[in-house]
Design a protein that fits this description.
alpha/beta, six-stranded antiparallel β-sheet, five-stranded parallel β-sheet, 16 strands, 32% helix
Length: 359
Amino acid sequence: MGVRIIRLDAVAFLWKEIGSPSIHLTETHAVVKLLRLLADFSTESVVILTETNVPKAENLSYFGDRDEAHVVYNFPLPPLVLHSFQQADARALTKWAAGLDQPAPGTAFFNFLDSHDGIGVLGARGILSDGQIKAMGKRVQDYGGFISMRTDSDGRKSPYEFNITWFSALNRYDSTEPVELQVNRFVASRAIALVLQGVPGIYMPSMMGSKNDVEAVFREGEWRSINRTGVDVRRLFDVLRDEDAVPSRIARTYTELLQKRVAEPAFHPAAGQKVLEIDRRVFAVVRTPQDEEYRVLCAINVSSEEVEFSVSAADAGFEPGVLTELTAERTVDATGGTIDLVLEPYGVWWIKGTAPQNS
């Protein structure tokens, strides 16, 4: 019937067994393996995507021995990106990304930031401290969102997810900041999901910079309704025609990034990845296509400050020379062996250059 991706929602709870927690049971993995087998024998290309909002080891177990999911949700990513932009500090995100193991051939991470449910928190536990997660939740509440709690095994309550739109999580509802700065902050955060190894996932309301629908929360009595506003197509196209409106600005800039990403083999899920530590306000990763003839250095400023830094061309894996910056079609002079950059607030730079011949 033309289905290309089968998403298994909360699949960890698929099989029930009285007297057990009914999560991650052997039978559950057996069902996923069966679906994978059917997908592999299909005459069409079908991808099995598992959604399991659980700690890292259990989440990755749904790759199986390359005989279960093709793609699994990358749950630590959303809270780590949100934390980075709230604190203007990408160190936790950088450390986590540097420690990620490359998935086996034929498998990939699903790099999403938000969904119809909210921004999950469980993936950040053990990476961010309880204090950092609490501070993140406090900011979400200050920005008009809610915190869904769960009961842990010790009986205590802890945050499970933040219920807020991604745009509102980054931009306070009564902000007096210039609209351009708010849009740039939003797009820079989304760009991190575009450059990391894996397949980016985009929740369509976020593509338009949807803001908190608080009326729906009180009307329906459901916190998740804050980010489930229906789309009126005619009104949407009217807004997109207004070049000064937030949805139009976001869609235009975001679409340009997507077009450049699709055209660049270095962003293929199987392309290599190396995370660099440059500045606490910068998330930087080098992507290398399979032919290894060149590199793309992605540098994203998570702060409202201008950031000036230098990185050795050799450390980034580049041959010294004149490099091409893809997002704005500009050049970067690295003939002296050093890449000197000045990132504007929430700047996104994708720099492409030749790899050393002996690499």
